[in-house]
Design a protein that fits this description.
transcription regulation, DNA-binding, transcription, DNA binding
């Protein structure tokens, strides 16, 4: 499992962890019943607090991406790919709802925003 934390981002660290684990589930890098590192081990590897990784795992469990077996660990849960995709689309819509008002405030037209999004999409 490969997770990179950017401390310079405004996005909270636990959200960065959640986002990257979800992405790895969606693209098939993490499969059903794969075991995640322990909360302490991941915290140590990422050089973040145990509380941060615990919160990330709690968010993943709340969203249905993982399940925890007491004494055994945290595992990737079965994912209905179509349902996961719909959930991710909602997350993206919420991010766009946050960004679009700034675009309007700075008079960035929809066509300009579309060009920016296409450039970013092609970079990744």
């Amino acid at each position: 499992m490969d997770i990179s934390i950017l401390f310079s981002l405004k996005q909270p660290i636990y959200e960065q962890i959640v986002t990257q684990i979800v992405a790895q589930i969606l693209n098939g890098e993490l499969r059903e019943e794969d075991q995640l590192p322990s909360i302490r081990k991941l915290a140590s590897e990422l050089k973040v607090s145990v509380i941060t990784t615990k919160r990330a795992y709690e968010e993943l469990e709340r969203a249905g991406y993982v399940h925890t077996v007491t004494g055994k660990g945290t595992f990737i849960a079965y994912q209905d790919k179509e349902n996961v995709k719909l959930n991710q689309i909602e997350v993206i819509k919420n991010e766009l709802r946050r960004i679009v008002p700034d675009c309007k405030k700075y008079n960035i037209q929809l066509t300009e925003l579309q060009k920016i999004m296409q450039l970013i999409y092609e970079e990744g």
